[in-house]
Amino acid sequence: MLTRNKNLVVLAVLTSGIALTAADSAPRSRADELHPAAAQAPATQGSTAQGSTAQGSTAQGSAAQGAAAQGSSTQGSWDAVTLGRIEPRAGEIKITAPLPGGRIAEVLVKPNEEVFAGELLVRRGGEEALARVAEADAQVALHKRARNDQSAPAASADRRKAEDAAADAERNVADARSALDKTTADWRAGRVARADLDTSRSALTRAEDRLRERREALAKLKASADTPLPTRLEGELNVAQAEWRVAQAALEKTQVRAPADGVVLRVDAKNGELSVPAAGPPILAIGDVSALRVRAEVNERGLGRIRVGQNVLVRAGAFHGREFEGKVSSVARVVGPSRINSGDPRKFSDVDVLEVLVDLPSPGPLVVGEQVDVYFKSDRSDQVETQ
Question: Is the CATH number 1.10.760.10 carried by domain 78-90+288-386?
Answer without folding.
Answer: no
